[in-house]
Amino acid sequence: MSNVITISRDFGSLGRPIAKEVAERLGYNFYDPQLIELAAKRLNKDVVDLEAYDDQTVIHTNLKGQQYVGMAFPFGMGDRHKAMELFAVQEDLIKEIAEKENAIIVGRAADYILTMEEKEELLRIHITGSYEHRFHNAVEELGLSPAAARDSIKTIDKARASFYETITNEKFDSPMYRDVIINTDDFTKEYVVDMICNMAEHRFAK
Predict the structure, then answer these.
(1) Average pLDDT for residues 141-159, to the nearest whole number?
(2) Nearest CA-CA partner of 122 in 154, 143, 141, 95
């Protein structure tokens, strides 16, 4: 049976780079932007046509010049029907991945989707932090200006919360579909990676 770790995160908590390092350490497949490509192949459409409707799109230039504006539109920036079509494809892909691969899946309400699938070999992590800590990370680690960091935290947190609640009927900070919530304020990224790897070893021990 395959083992899956889902990682949801608040903006600036460094959840995505933490997830990527955990995947490398455990030898698991890492799914984040890759889901866009898989969905595009499934729908036989160009990735560029779909990526504007995905919550992980990184757009380097927009009217405000913000780097992570795509994350503020979990349902996309265009046609709502196309956005939901893409999400439905990604939902199917998440289920297929969880059935056959050891994987780290970031975002996309994967914790909820796989709980509803009654996936047994599952570890559900949510990574967060105080506003001050995430602001610091947004500036120092993600390279945003202070103004862009403040706006990104506010906008992206709100968008992710709205997306998650729409899909799950639960608040984004709810523990309902999470096994562990990690506040990264007092831990280095490396320590959090170690923590998650240790939890996975315990959870998936045969």
Answers:
(1) 89
(2) 95
